[in-house]
Amino acid sequence: MAAEFPIARPRRLRRTAALRRLVAQTSLRPQDLVQPLFVKEGIGEPQPVGSMPGVVQHTRESLRKAAEEAVRAGVGGLILFGVPAGKDATGSGADDPDGIVQRALADLAADLGDDTVLMADLCLDEYTDHGHCGILTGAGEVDNDATLERYAAVALAQARAGVHVVAPSGMMDGQVAAIRDALDGDGFTDVAICAYSAKYASAFYGPFRDAAECAPSFGDRSTYQQDYASGPEALREVQLDIDEGADIVMVKPALPYLDIIAEVAASVRVPVAAYQVSGEYAMVEAAAANGWIDRDRVITETLTAIKRAGAGIILTYWATEVAGRLG
Ligand code: PBG
């Protein structure tokens, strides 16, 4: 039957792989990906993380190898998480110059120099015996302003150890300003801040809390992390962080929050990062281990979707693997 007007045929541009490649608007690049790495104090061998198959807690030595491998694969950067041997109420390991992250940062700074971007998560939950991201009041609440002083000290310790970018993840009000002020006051005006700006109180962090040994011993993080039922708050948090001096803003988790990534990307003029978190990783690995999904294709699809939504930088536990595949 001859139509009066030719019917629209978007399929024309999908006919060959070459046509599809020509018109594709999103492509992942190795340098878009940041590799999170865990380093644990006082272990002799890397320890597998049960809920994150393929991820380990590194020794200082195995960390150096993993970092070198990631850089060789072409990743855009590395972000370190420390797991100290001992914990206390104030998380003193977080800013101890001999603490695990400071030592690991110094190792990597010596090995890699400016060949990669060395980032560090800046928080207290891995270091406190109660597992919260800040200092507690007598009543057991997280004391925002007392915590800011601790974050400022941690930022300085990480800067002295050679970090390029600090990544505050504790969601305290005013944390970016406090950290910027401390860094500038000590001459570290070149250390950048990647703020976990829109970070939701998410069940998707479950496996990470095994990896970083930081599950709260009571309560949860919903008095400081955002409520996922509340959307517009994200832009407010992001804007506050930019006003306080954030150089990069981050949305976390990633895949369930593509709407937030898109909104943030449309409204800011700084680079936007997204964190594909441990639960997102674990779900894909578990389904793939059961033979229920095509692992590699699902990984590429999720990362492409996160980039398409507007995140130019993606933190993902698959960074080294995917960068190697892309490179
Ligand atoms: C806090 C922090 C967390 C993650 C990154 N930084 C845990 C939390 O907020 O409970 C989660 C990352 C992931 O799930 O992969 N220091």
Protein described:
The model has no long low-confidence stretch (mean pLDDT 96). The chain has eleven helices and ten strands. By secondary structure, the protein is an alpha/beta fold. An eight-stranded parallel beta barrel has the order 1-4-5-6-7-8-9-10, surrounded by eight helices. The longest helix has 18 residues, at 144-161. It has one domain: Aldolase class I (TIM Barrel). Helix 3 (100-112) packs parallel to helix 4 (144-161). It is globular. Ligand PBG binds next to loops.
Keywords:
327 residues, alpha/beta, TIM Barrel, eight-stranded parallel beta barrel, 11 helices, 10 strands, 39% helix, binds ligand PBG
Topology (SSEs and partners):
Elements: H1 17-23, E1 33-40, E2 47-48, E3 56-58, H2 60-73, E4 77-83, H3 100-112, E5 118-122, H4 144-161, E6 165-168, H5 175-185, E7 192-199, H6 206-211, H7 233-244, E8 248-252, H8 258-267, E9 272-275, H9 278-289, H10 295-309, E10 313-315, H11 319-326
Parallel strand pairs: 1-3, 1-4, 1-10, 4-5, 5-6, 6-7, 7-8, 8-9, 9-10
Antiparallel strand pairs: 2-3
The structure holds ligand PBG.
Ligand PBG is lined by residues 121, 123, 125, 169, 205, 208, 221, 277-278.
CATH topology: TIM Barrel
Overall shape: it is globular
Helical percentage:
25-40%
Fourth CATH level, the homologous superfamily: Aldolase class I
Lateral arrangement of strands in the main beta sheet: 1-4-5-6-7-8-9-10
- Report Rg: 21 Å
Order of H and E elements: HEEEHEHEHEHEHHEHEHHEH
Using the coordinates above, name the CATH class.
Answer: Alpha Beta
| Whole-number count of domains | 1
Mind summarizing the main beta sheet? Answer: 8 strands, parallel, barrel
Distance between the termini: 49 Å
Instruction: Give the class from helix and strand content and strand pairing.
Output: alpha/beta
